[in-house]
Amino acid sequence: MSARVVSLTGATGFIGSVLRERLITRGVEVRALARSRSAMTADGTKWISGTLEDEQALAELTRGADTVIHCAGKVRGRNARDFDEVNVQGSKRLMEAARMSGSCERFLLISSLAARYPTLSWYAASKFEGECQVREAAGTIPVCIFRPTAVYGPGDRELRPVFEWLLRGWLVTPGKGDSLLSFLHVDDLVSAVMQWLDAPVMQSQTFELCDGQAQGYDWASLASIATDIRNAPVRHAVVPAKVLKGIARANLVLSRFTRQAPMLTPGKVNELMHPDWTCSNARISAVLGWEPQILLGQALRNHLY
């Protein structure tokens, strides 16, 4: 592995914690940003206390690092500003710190397939603009952007309830339920990152990643997977789009009083009802030789979620 020192954000989160453990196991020196001291595990990581708003902490994080991997991101927010502060401005500040360090040879941004459709939601718009800001601030540093589909695995709190209910025999779908979906296990995503680290420094590129299921999944195929695993039928309930949108609007109103960022917002409903979340691994496979190993059915059968 060519990396000597890796600076990592989001190191205590779902994806970042798995990546941090893999890097440490491979003997890489890891510097990681953490908001809370309680999250700083004694595993060999050099922890930097701070946030993406703290320019001094970012300077310390990136000082002497030849590689920067940006996993941190905001997935919930009450307005566009909530997302932009982290996903756009925070990403830009990190890239500027990496450039100013004088040691960064390459930068990896873990974005989202949602960035392909920036008009869908505040989240999608912030991921797309974050990519733009990172590329503009990079100077001569090569920037690689990963756009994974819905990532799941141990430690995930968003998709796990969906899969648990599915394996109990219940599938709840939004609207007409005719969307095409795709998924990616966190271990496969981390393996892609490791192969990027093993590869020679390359020119700036953007890659989309999924588990390789041809044509992705529709809701019927998810029900079929669960039926095979359970050896029992799956009940299908449809929540009308109008109901979802009403709940989402109510969540935003309620959030003004609770100050809590809701998960279901009008933008999230747009994401849930988008007709096509499939992608191809052809480019990343050709460039990095990466191939996913875990299909969704295998993960559900073996409780790898």
TrEMBL record:
Q: Which residues form the NAD-dependent epimerase/dehydratase domain?
A: 8-201
Q: Which InterPro entries does the record match to this protein? A: ComplexI_NDUFA9_subunit, Epimerase_deHydtase, NAD(P)-bd_dom_sf
Residue ranges of coiled coil: none
Name of the protein this chain belongs to = NAD(P)-dependent oxidoreductase
Organism phylogeny: Bacteria, Pseudomonadati, Pseudomonadota, Gammaproteobacteria, Pseudomonadales
